[in-house]
Design a protein that fits this description.
Blueprint (H helix, E strand, L loop, with lengths): L1 H42 L1 E4 L19 E3 L7 E5 L5 E4 L12 E3 L4 E5 L12 E3 L4 E3 L14 E3 L21 E3 L21 E3 L6 E3 L12 E3 L4 E4 L13 E3 L4 E4 L5 H4 L5 E3 L4 E5 L12 E3 L4 E4 L13 E3 L4 E2 L9 H6 L7 E3 L23 E3 L6 E2 L13 E3 L4 E2 L15 E3 L6 E2 L13 E3 L4 E5 L11 E3 L4 E4 L3 H4 L7 E3 L4 E5 L12 E3 L4 E3 L6
Parallel strand pairs: 3-5, 4-6, 5-7, 6-8, 7-9, 9-10, 10-11, 11-13, 12-14, 13-15, 14-16, 15-17, 16-18, 17-19, 18-20, 19-21, 20-22, 21-23, 23-24, 24-26, 25-27, 26-28, 28-30, 29-31, 30-32, 31-33, 32-34, 33-35, 34-36, 35-37
Antiparallel strand pairs: 1-4, 2-3
């Protein structure tokens, strides 16, 4: 019995020694493989502006090198490389394919160039590949489809060419696909519809063409679709309206046509951003938008939308930006064209309101514009048929930086209350029927860059109080202004680029102070009653 026990103990010891030796040899071999692969990675770097890779040397085990992480379970096996925003310049070594335990590669915000090594397709454990904001060239490697555990593929902002590989449709675990800001061509492959786990699809700012695939509507998990700035044609696929989880859709700046489904707000109730600008869409603005109660951004600009603006947009309590400029919005009668503004009074977070270049009529003073959110900083209603006076109460909009009401049919005087808008940087009231004098209070606008009051019926003298060191453009042409050119207006700054007082009834000699406008690109004082010569300076 004693002999049997001794034999058993001896066998166990031999087995342990064998396993220890086997593991040690295996670890040493893999240690060498991963270490050499990292050295090859470093050799591909031609410039290291922050000197981070100087710590990649034999005095420290590579598992402790900056940006390198190793597995706890598999000793000395590299599982992550994260060198984001380190100012690295160079190419990505194909030896990265030897780091077979890699799960994460993050190299964004550097200056890598050359092609993406196809050897990455052999990293079967890879879950995250982020190469955005570099200068990679060539095509997207088709064998990335072999990385079946991939969850994040971000190649945004490079110089990639060619087509989006159809093979990527086999990545059933992929949650983020980022291909924007490249030079990709061809059609969006229908196989993208097989990405059953996809949450984010970003392929904007390329040269993609053809139709948006109907198959995209099969991805029930998708929340973010960005396909803007391409050459896509056709209509919005009906299947996209089935994506009830969709939070953000940007298809702006394409050649899409047709109408927006009238029940889009019912079908896509979780939308926060809807961008369809710069296409060929027609028909009415859907009245159901207010059903998507979380909407923050609505961009419908530069299409051919017609009819009235929905009057219940005030239900969008989170709305910050609404831009419907460059359409044909408005009604035949026009009496209620601006009623939507009254509704928007309820949008307490509203910051930007842009409806210029439409066919809106109605009286401005009846629109409740002065009661909009005090957070609003941009109002553009120019190039319409709006009439009436500018309401005095507009002074309530204390954060307003940009106000454009040009090319309308506004009458009355410029309210002195505009001088209380101390954040104002651009005041655009040209091409109306405004009369009276230019208010002295406009001199209180010490941040004003652009003052456009041209083509009105303004009279009286130009206030010397307008002098502000921040002025860049001053256009007061084609009015009935009299008196001399205020010297104070010419002493303000050398930064004025446009100075146009033409088409008035100004008198006196040309001030020598005109020579102070040394950077002026457009100086026009013609068609007045001025005399004298321009200063030599």
């Amino acid at each position: 019995m004693k002999a049997l026990w001794s034999f058993f103990i001896h066998s166990i010891l031999i087995l342990c020694i064998y396993l220890w030796c086997h593991t040690t040899v295996s670890d040493l071999l893999q240690n060498e493989t991963d270490g050499l692969a990292l050295i090859a990675f470093k050799d591909g770097i031609t410039h290291d502006s922050l000197g981070m890779l100087s710590f990649w040397n034999e005095s420290i085990h590579f598992c402790h090198w900056i940006g390198v992480s190793c597995s706890r379970r598999h000793v000395h096996r590299v599982v992550a490389i994260n060198l984001s925003s380190y100012g690295l310049v160079g190419s990505l070594s194909p030896h990265i394919g030897n780091l077979t335990f890699l799960r994460t590669v993050i190299l964004q915000n550097n200056s890598f160039h050359g092609e993406i090594p196809p050897q990455i397709g052999g990293l079967f454990h890879l879950r995250v590949l982020v190469l955005s904001n570099n200068s990679f060239r060539g095509e997207v490697p088709t064998n990335l489809s072999h990385c079946l555990n991939l969850k994040v593929l971000n190649l945004i902002d490079n110089k990639l060419i060619g087509k989006i590989p159809e093979e990527l449709g086999s990545l059933s675990t992929l949650q983020t696909l980022g291909l924007s800001i490249n030079n990709l061509t061809g059609k969006i492959p229908a196989s993208i519809g097989n990405l059953s786990s996809l949450i984010t699809l970003s392929a904007g700012d390329n040269h993609l063409e053809g139709r948006i695939p109907e198959e995209l509507g099969r991805i029930a998990t998708v929340e973010f679709i960005q396909l803007s700035y391409n050459k896509l044609v056709g209509t919005i696929p009906s299947s996209l309206y089935n994506l009830s989880s969709l939070d953000y859709i940007d298809i702006a700046s394409n050649q899409l046509e047709g109408s927006i489904h009238p029940d889009i707000g019912v079908f896509l109730p979780h939308l926060t951003g809807l961008f369809v600008s710069e296409n060929k869409f027609t028909g009415p603005v859907p009245g159901s938008l207010s059903n998507a109660s979380g909407l923050i951004y609505i961009h419908f600009a530069d299409n051919t939308f017609t009819g009235s603006v929905p009057q219940d947009l005030g239900r969008l309590q989170n709305l910050q930006i609404i831009n419907m400029s460059g359409n044909r919005l408005g009604s035949t009668e026009g009496d209620h064209d601006l009623d939507f503004i009254t509704s928007l009074v309820n949008c307490t977070k509203l910051q930007i309101l842009v409806f210029d270049d439409n066919s809106l009529k109605a009286s401005l003073v009846s629109s409740s514009i002065a009661n909009l959110s005090t957070h609003i900083n941009w109002i553009s209603l120019g190039i319409n048929e709006i009439h009436g006076i500018i309401p005095f109460g507009i002074e309530n909009l204390v954060n307003l930086t940009f106000l454009s009401l040009e090319s309308n049919q506004l009458t009355g005087t410029i309210p002195t209350s505009l001088g209380n808008l101390h954040e104002m940087q651009a005041l655009v009231l040209g091409r109306n029927k405004l009369s009276g004098t230019i208010p002295l209070s406009l001199g209180n606008l010490t941040l004003l860059n652009y003052l456009y009051l041209y083509d009105n019926n303004l009279s009286g003298e130009i206030p010397s109080t307008l002098a502000s060191p921040t002025l860049i453009d001053v256009i007061l042409s084609n009015n009935n202004l009299t008196g001399s050119i205020p010297k104070e207006l010419l002493d303000i700054s050398t930064g004025v680029l446009v100075f146009n007082l033409s088409g008035n009834a100004l008198t006196g000699s040309l001030p020598m102070e005109l020579g102070n406008l040394i950077n002026v690109a457009d100086l026009d004082v013609s068609h007045n009653r001025l005399y004298g010569s321009l200063p030599n300076s």
